[in-house]
Design goal:
With about 300 residues, this protein is of the alpha/beta class. It has 14 helices and eight strands. The structure holds zinc ion.
């Protein structure tokens, strides 16, 4: 039994599904992207721009959920960007209906936690407007912030996070993937985060690791993504083991299956390469399972 607590919904189906929708073969994915920008360009051009109808959305979500079931995942927190309905010109209500239908369709096999997804590149005032609309649908149980860490400050998102907090959502954000250990602590404190997506640079400051360990803040780590995007040169040099040994709670996750092609089963093999024992791996899996139903 596994969990996947860090994945982006519309980037998590097998690549063949996007190719079926597009009607052509997508450019071969590099094992490593040259930069975060080249990664963003690839995903936007090849995976997002081809989504042009509610049927496309449904096909991708269905593929992403089935991929999780095939990977023996029993609980997943999956984010959806608040700007997607506008981009594909469907109403938020129609989009929510697809999410609800597809979640229900697999509910006997997997528990899906729907997550409000926010890009740092969307203006904070617009994010707040969307977040209020999305949260009021009552189908979402968590919120996440992502995209270029150099864009914006933690304070810019306080309004949205406080609203989500008062509505009982689990609070998460991508930070410390490329940014500093200091930024991880700053985001956890400013936005009252329950969990951090990546957060691997916390390893650079023992006081930040100690802070996270004492607070019990979870880091939802994605090794293949970190290697493919150059955040770590290799699995052997990945900081996850140091974080774990310092008492920081970590989980293992897939991030963007469409782009990285690594299942959780693959990620578990990487944990062995990263120096984790079988007992450690059992603990990491348990950390994920313990997150289940904390924010129903
Ligand atoms: Zn991510």
């Amino acid at each position: 039994m596994k969990t996947d607590l860090h994945l982006h919904g519309l980037l998590s189906a097998p690549l063949s599904i996007y190719e079926e929708i597009a009607g052509w073969s997508l450019p071969k994915l590099p094992a490593k992207f040259e930069s975060f920008e080249s990664f963003n360009d690839y995903l936007f051009q090849n995976l997002i721009l081809i989504i042009q109808s509610p049927e496309h959305v449904r096909k991708i979500i269905r593929g992403a959920f089935q991929r999780l079931i095939d990977d023996d995942v029993v609980y997943a927190e999956e984010s959806f960007d608040v700007m997607i309905p506008d981009l594909i010109q469907v109403s938020s209500e129609a989009f929510f209906e697809i999410l609800t239908d597809e979640k229900k369709r697999v509910s006997s096999q997997i528990e899906i936690g729907l997550e409000v997804g926010m890009s740092r590149k969307t203006p904070p005032a617009l994010l707040f407007q969307k977040v209020r609309e999305w949260v009021s649908s009552k189908i979402f149980s968590s919120v996440d912030l992502y995209d270029d860490e150099r864009v914006g400050l933690a304070e810019d998102f306080v309004e949205s996070y406080r609203f989500c907090e008062s509505s009982g959502l689990k609070l998460k954000a991508h930070v410390g993937e490329f940014g500093s250990a200091h930024s991880v602590k700053e985001y956890v404190e400013t936005l009252h985060l329950n969990a951090v997506q990546h957060g691997i640079r916390s390893v650079d400051d023992p006081s930040v690791m100690d802070y996270l360990a004492k607070k019990g803040t979870i880091l939802n780590i994605c090794p293949t993504s970190n290697v493919a995007l150059g955040a770590c040169p290799s699995y052997q040099t990945h900081p996850a083991k140091k974080l774990f040994d310092a008492g920081v709670k970590i989980t293992i996750n897939t991030d963007d299956y469409a782009l990285f092609g690594a299942s959780l089963e693959d990620e578990l093999k990487h944990l062995s390469e990263m120096g984790f024992s079988e007992n450690d791996i059992a603990q990491i899996l348990q950390n994920g399972l313990n997150q289940r139903s904390l924010f129903p």
